Fold this protein.
Amino acid sequence: MSKKGKLYIILVAIAILGIVAAEMTKPKQLNWFPSYATHHKIPFGSYVFHEQLKRLADTVTIVERPPFEYLKNNTIEGTYLFYNGGIEFGKEEINSLLDWVSRGNTLIISAVGFEEHLLDTLNLDTKSVSITENFNNEYQVNLVNPALDNKRSYKYERPTTFYHFDEIDTLQTAVVGLIDSYRGENMPIKDSLVNSIRQPFGAGHIMLSTFPQAFSNYFMLQSPNQNYSAGLLSYIDTSKPIYVDTYYKTGKTYYTSPMYLFLNTKSLKWAYYMVLIGAFIYILFEGKRKQRAIPIVKPLKNQTVDFTRTIANMYYENGKHKDIAQHKIHHFLEYIRNTLHLSTSEINTSFIKNLAARSNNTIEETETLFKLIERLSQKSELNAIELERLNTLIEQFKSHNQWKKTTS
């Protein structure tokens, strides 16, 4: 390799190492993915809420199956808690949940959107909060129960679209919380935008909230917002089992990819990237140096001998001894003309003497062979013994002439 090529490789290697060093020393970017998973410690995970719930409640059960399947066990009772960015139940599933609530249990759903069938059943409708006068995307929420410090507002400033209950059945529905644009520290909400409600259903209760961020790490760790989340939990009977759904969570409860450990650990991730970059450089430079292997093409096999042997066997098996004898005689005469350079147009005594001399055979052997040829040529049919006799004499005659081929 030339000096110029080596210089280019060194410069590329230095650049790659510089990029890797800069990336490894760069602060890790914050993950704002709205997972709401109970084991996630990212801003929109719910690790803090789950830990506090276990501390306050007697029994907390994580449910990793769909409620339609889980509620087939009729012994389950208590509170079923759902919170996520969006939840879409099927019609049969929401009916099974409502039947379960009607038997004296509590259902809490906190999400941006709700099942249409559920809203129709409870005579509810939702509408987005106007942002015409709230370009900073700052919101405040509070609780209406006087026992929960209803004069305090809790701030939330992440950009998002919030919803409120536009139509409610005031005879059956109790307002739990309100939401509006941020108006200042401890400023009460003037416009009644209802975002949390509670309604009896059969022997049980249903509580709905359009503010699932109340259960996120980001909201609860900003004091005093934890009081708002605690106020929502005050509507739950903590002496009974609480079932927390993880089936409808956006974030996974476990990692299915084996590459998670590599890509989630900075040092392993960059080691993996370096291996890929090194392999690419090796292929790029090493591939140009080596010529592609040239395949070996086998020459065509001469099938003449095999073909002749096949035809001869066919004639022999069919009993055409006369035809085989004629071919043998014609080939023998051709051999004399081409190899011994004698004319076969006239077979006489002079020809026999010259042929015997040139082929290293005796005159008697030569005469015997040609007498046999003459006799067989005159016969119309031959048997196998006569054909074998002809072949033996011709081969013996040729064998005496082999020394000429060896010395030539």
Remarks:
- The two ends are 56 Å apart (CA to CA).
